[in-house]
Structure formats: C-alpha cells, structure tokens
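Sat 14:20. Reprocessing the chain from the morning session after the first attempt stalled halfway. Input below, unchanged.
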Amino acid sequence: MSHKLDSEATIKRNPHPDFKKVEESRPPFQPKQWSFSKTVDPDWKLGSGGNDGGASLKKKHIDIDPYEEGRPSVSNYKLLISGVIPRPIGFISTVSKDGKSTNLAPMSYTQVVNHDPVVLVVGFSGGFDKAKDTLRNLVDTGECTINMISEHFVEAANATSINSPYGVSEWVISGLHPAPSKDVKPSRVKESVFSIEGKLMDTKEFESRVNKGSKTGVMAIIEGVRFWVREDAINDEKNLIDPAVLKPMSRLGGITYSRTTEGLELPRPDFKQTIELEERKDLIQPKAEGQ
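Finished this time. Tokens:
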C-alpha cells in the first residue's frame, strides 16, 4: 500500500525473526463453539469492589508521559494497541474517484459511536499528505463499506494489509470475493457475515504534539446507510447477530489477533431494586474527591 506510514519496517510489530518456525511450535487451531459461562463471582455483592480478593490493590503502577523528551511516538502506538484491547477491525472497501482502482484494507482504529444516525469512526495513521489508499478513496468519493472479519477468512483479511503499490488489487491477493452494494459503489466482502455501507460525514486531521506542523493522523466519521447480514446470523426481529455464527476476530498488540468464543452475562443493576430493596442504604453516600 503506497504512502503507508505505519509500515512493518518502521513499526516492527512482528517480534519473531522467523515467524513460521515459531508458528510450527504451536498447537493447531482448535474450532470452538460459542458458549456462556458464569461470571467470575456469581455471589458478588454491591460495594464489594474487585473479585480478586484485593490482589490487584497490592500492585504498583508507573506513570508515563506520552510526550516526554526522547520518547518516540511509535512507543505510544505500541503501548496503545497492546493495552486498548480487544479492538474491532473495520475491513474497509473503497473505490478510487475515477473508478479504475479499488482498495481493501483492515483498520483496527474502528468503532461505532452512535445508532441514530448510525455513526462509526475510523482512524488512519498519517495526515492527508501521506494518505493511505483507503483514506484517499474515502475522501475523494465519500463512500465505503465496512465489513466485519470472522475466523473463516482471517488469513485472507490479513493478507490485504500487504504494502502493495497503488492500483494493485487486494481482492486478488487475498482471494476474497466482492459482492454488490445498494447505496454506495464500493463492493462489500461476500465472505463477511456483517457489512455496513457507509458515507463520509466528516474528517478531522491531527497534528503532532512533539513535531509541530507534522500531521500524524486522520479520523473519518462515517454514516452507516445500509446493513448486510448473513441470513443464518440474524434473528427474526433483525436486531441481533448471533456471535456463534459471526465468530468475530479482533486485534490485540503487535501482530496478534483474538477470537471471541465465550461470553458471560451481567444484568445492568436498577438503583431501587438493588440499593433500596436489598437494604443497602449504607452505600448511598456523597461523592468524595477522586471518586
């Protein structure tokens, strides 16, 4: 991908000199069925704090100034992607303004932020002067599709992150299949269980705190205008997607991906039912400094 600011040669996400050798030493992939478990402490009571018996309170923390002298910005990048986890991956499809070139790329700075209107944000490393193909196409045309990545095509999705020259098809490199959209020109990924057609609402470019004048990132605000969900994954009311079918992949730090194979449920507490009916009025106290 041309103008790729966070290239592997610069960031060095891969910690293994010989990755295939390391991979060969690991156990094979084991398919897992989605399941629920109890929460860590089903008998947890209000006011009890952590469920680890206070063990975490005995650990010390260090503070880090992200802009301290001598600290490279790549250290903040590595820290954030290893600590803000798991992160959903926006697998974004775009088309160039002249319609002659397409782009397909995974973006882990992706999140939904509103539902009416449907709004998602996607972050791009580098400013407009070094725009990735995805950002360039999105700004030029105002359109994209955002596709969720599942276990059954994670290798193919990862392959699209290759630093190929502008105009080279990631669809061919990955072997994935384009499917037509209705309200935007970019294709959605046929293999994806859940896809969103999107139209650009706005962008915000960021400037470095350390190197004044240097543009370091762009946030794109995108409105979702149409959903596509695989039939076997959606309920009759068309408002819930089955995680057992979606089998979503997310990003951790470095080159690590994560699977979601197990969940636990915790009802949101109601003040009257939990505080007043359980006679825990001793917990009704004014907020103190730091709380």
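The helical segments are 8-11, 19-24, 73-83, 133-141, 154-159, 170-174, 243-246, 271-276.
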